[in-house]
Amino acid sequence: MAHELPQLPYAYNALEPFICEEIMTIHHTKHHQTYVNALNAAEKSFAEAQSAKDVKSQIALQAALKFNGGGHINHSLFWKNLAPAQSAEAKYPEGSAFAKAVERDLGGYENLKKEVTAATLGIQGSGWGWLALNSKNKRLEVITTANQDPVTPPHVPLFGIDIWEHAFYLQYKNVKPDYLNAIFNVINWAETAKRYDDATK
Questions:
Q1: Which pLDDT score is estimated for 112?
Q2: Rounded Cα gap, residues 185 and 83, in angstroms
Q3: Would you say the pTM of this structure is higher than 0.70?
Q4: Per-residue DSSP letters for 164-199?
Q5: Which residue positions form the known binding site for Mn(2+)?
Q6: Cβ atoms within 10 A of the Cβ of 105, count?
């Protein structure tokens, strides 16, 4: 079955003024759609190569599968990571199991924000900053991935921040710290806490 572009759980202008409508529209309908289309094409070509027992072509397609598959996975997580600033979902869940884990492993919300921001700013070129759960030791860790590489075991992604220029440049130009400061106003903490609960069951 072909992959499809997921619908956003909010309107394109719902994250303003922190992420503008133009960015959200282009990011979702153009960039994410491109990853979906390219992933479907790569999977079709890979299936044909498998049927033909064409190993060289299967190997050659790995990069396209990784890049576009990662782009689809990451963005599908990213849209659910976000929520309108005034919504209940964007309220940090003090007292929750997730918040207690943040306090235990990262020293609280403000330090979480500092660590995620610093790690994401440290990415050379394009990539993603993540808050993840290490499934081996059940501790929260701040990690990064390059380009469109997805988070892989033992880490489970709880929320991610897209630091590709298409995610912020129209509004924040080259001032990445302003974008990162703004995006914390529209993190969907309810979704983040749910992912933590699901991953620690």
A1: 98
A2: 9
A3: yes
A4: SGGGTHHHHTT-HHHHHHHHGGGB-HHHHHHHHHHH
A5: 27, 75, 162, 166
A6: 18
| pLDDT score, position 85 | 98
Looking at residue 23, its amino acid is I
Q: E strand or H helix at 49, and its extent?
A: helix 33-51
Selected from 1.10.3720.10, 1.25.40.10, 1.10.287.990, 2.40.30.110, the CATH number assigned to the domain covering 21-81 reads 1.10.287.990
Query: Which residues have C-beta within 8 Å of that of residue 157, sequence separation ≥ 6?
Result: 77, 130, 131, 132, 150, 151, 195
Q: Which CATH superfamily is domain 97-200 in?
A: Iron/manganese superoxide dismutase, C-terminal domain (3.55.40.20)
**At 157, which helix (H) or strand (E)?**
strand 155-162
- Report the binding-site residues: 27, 75, 162, 166
CA end-to-end distance (rounded Å), the chain = 30
Provide the token pair at 161: 């921040």
| Mean pLDDT, the chain, whole residue set | 97
Structural domain boundaries in the chain: 21-81, 97-200
Q: Using alpha carbons only, what angle is made at residue 122 by residues 134 and 27, rounded to the nearest 5 degrees?
A: 85
